[in-house]
Amino acid sequence: MTVRIENDNLIVEIHEHGAELQSVRRKDSDLEYIWQADPKYWNRHAPVLFPIVGRLKNNQYEFAGNTYYLSQHGFARDLNFIVIEQSTTHAVFELRDSPLTKNLYPFSFHFQIKYTLTTKDTVKIEYFVHNPGETPIYFQVGGHPAFNVPMEQGHKFTDYYVNVDPVKEYDRIKLVGPYSDPDHMGTFNPRIPLRLRYDDYKEDAIILSLEQQPTSLILARLDASHGVTMHLADAKYVGIWSPYGKDAPFVCLEPWWGLADTLDADGDIKHKFAINKLDGQQDYSANWSLTFF
């Protein structure tokens, strides 16, 4: 089932499968901002990443003496959520632990995602994790929205850029294959906006450490006729990605509260790189928003 929220400017569609944002269109021009999942390039729109971000070493981890297998980015993107609240301008989706999830992830959880049209051009996305048990749970969460590039006919991928604000030097987390390599950090200085080039993704995503400081990313053409601004209040990391070798007409801006395993990961989920711990009967929240122009 697809849930639709709207205001005078935007129509937003979210599917209960994965609670995935599937469309954001302008009413005045019918301009579509969200990638429409052409399987020739990538068959997703904006998957939600939970309970891990990225890949586990050997796609497995250990907890309490048992080994569990979990594919890249976790299972939430492939399960149906329940719509627990809806109005014209907001919707709340929920996923709870089940016998299916317990085979992959032995923890009890309530995971909610709320989409709200907060202004005429802005969609706010909020994540809420509740631990209903008495013992800690370990998790990561993040978004993976893909945006059409170009957004309008007659332009090219390379006509667009990503600008990062504030302008300062950021630590860049490099990848070795699918794994994080924090021992060999790079740097990224957005003094000059990042012009989109496919070759920049030869080694996968460009990942910046944000240290949970307020950060904004703008994706637009150089003349800024149409684009999107991502506002991050407290994200730990952000990834910029397009699939290398496909010349795909989209780019992803990905807010993350977690990262892939390191090369030397010992497999214990308690020791996982960039993991979040949530004690029993406690709540966790994170949010980000998108402004479309």
Automatic annotation (TrEMBL):
Stored CDD domains: Aldose_epim_lacX
Superkingdom as given in the UniProt entry: Bacteria
Biological process annotations from GO: carbohydrate metabolic process
Any one GO MF annotation of this record: isomerase activity
Name this polypeptide is given: Aldose 1-epimerase family protein
Species of the source: Periweissella fabalis
